[in-house]
């Protein structure tokens, strides 16, 4: 049985070093972070999906154009990565506006239809499935099933739905991306085993990520479930630390301590060039186990003609 691995990349102007959005970071991501990822993926013949915010794509169009010769997929990561404009706090009307704007920016640059979406910080609400459907999206990847570290991120209460979300890709409920249903949006979850299979966990604890990937590989051997890895090119860059105090984004003190201060300090571990060999270790592990690396769009196309997928949903 063929095993699939979906490598996904969230591309934005977030400065992990300085806990803020920064055009300067976006420029470094384009000049340093993206080339490092593209070089690694070329070595292992990986076709990956890149989710761009509309903001970074409009500000730096070449950051989108540079992936096209390699056959990677252009996906949408919303319009901005501002916590005050996250999809779980936006109305249906505002979500549609953000999706239309970002989709138009990306499709104008790449001259291809953009059908895959991942919400910034994986934050969505009950209006998101309809907003995605009404703006021409077919695929979402904003759910991380059975992930238990959501309390270190914003929108954690709404992410409790992840605890009972399906682990195998599925068509979603029209009002809940974390639930199977008869809707038209196809969910491709971020692989998790208590912790997400992500660059963040890879950097925080190289030992824990080995445990997570071993379990996910076992599941892939037993089931048809793909392995989906999530990383950001801003994890591979070094920046000057300009921050004096961690900006408070959370409305209550508890969320501030977990979501701002603790999360900020954890995310600094193995950040920058130290993350590069850790990334290569993940790719080498997956390559040696004969995964086929494809984009989310191509994975969707392989399954969409399989009637069993709709029957299971």
Explain what this protein looks like in three dimensions.
With 313 residues, the chain is an alpha/beta fold. The chain has a single domain, classed as Glycoside hydrolase/deacetylase (TIM Barrel), CATH 3.20.20.370. 40% of the residues lie in helices and 15% in strands. It is built from 11 helices and 14 strands. Helix 4 crosses helix 5. The longest helix is centred in the N-terminal third of the chain and has 21 residues. It is globular and about 45 Å long. The two termini are 22 Å apart. About 3% of the residues have low confidence.
Tell me briefly what this model is:
With 313 residues, the chain is of the alpha/beta class. The protein has helices at residues 23-43, 54-59, 62-65, 92-110, 128-134, 199-204, 206-222, 253-267, 275-288, 296-304, 307-312; strands at residues 3-11, 14-15, 20-21, 49-52, 73-76, 116-117, 139-140, 170-173, 176-180, 186-187, 192-193, 195-196, 227-231, 291-293. Strand 2 and strand 3 form a beta hairpin.
């Amino acid at each position: 049985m063929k095993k699939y691995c979906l490598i996904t990349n969230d591309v934005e102007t977030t400065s992990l070093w300085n806990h803020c959005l920064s055009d300067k970071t976006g420029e470094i991501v384009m000049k340093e972070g993206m080339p490092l990822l593209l070089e690694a993926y070329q070595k292992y013949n990986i076709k990956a999906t890149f989710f761009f915010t509309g903001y970074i794509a409009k500000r730096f169009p070449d950051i989108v154009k540079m992936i096209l010769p390699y056959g990677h997929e252009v996906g949408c990561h919303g319009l901005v990565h501002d916590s005050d404009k996250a999809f779980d706090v936006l109305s249906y009307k505002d979500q549609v506006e953000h999706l239309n704007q970002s989709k138009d920016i990306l499709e104008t640059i790449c001259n291809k239809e953009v059908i895959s979406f991942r919400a910034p910080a994986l934050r969505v609400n009950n209006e998101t499935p309809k907003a995605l459907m009404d703006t021409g999206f077919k695929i979402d990847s904003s759910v991380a099933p059975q992930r238990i570290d959501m309390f270190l991120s914003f929108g954690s209460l709404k992410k409790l739905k992840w605890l009972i979300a399906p682990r195998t890709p599925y068509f979603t409920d029209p009002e809940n991306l974390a639930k199977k249903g008869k809707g038209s949006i196809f969910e491709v979850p971020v692989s998790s085993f208590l912790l997400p299979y992500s660059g963040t966990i890879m950097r925080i604890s190289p030992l824990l990520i080995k445990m997570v990937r071993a379990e996910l590989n076992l599941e892939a051997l037993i089931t048809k479930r793909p392995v989906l890895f999530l990383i950001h090119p801003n994890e591979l860059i070094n920046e000057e630390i300009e921050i004096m105090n961690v900006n408070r984004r959370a409305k209550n003190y508890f969320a501030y301590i977990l979501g701002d201060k603790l999360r900020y300090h954890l995310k600094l571990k193995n950040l920058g060039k130290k993350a590069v060999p850790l990334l290569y270790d993940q790719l080498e592990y997956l390559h040696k186990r004969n995964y086929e690396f494809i984009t989310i769009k191509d994975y969707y196309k392989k399954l969409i003609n399989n009637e069993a997928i709709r029957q299971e949903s």
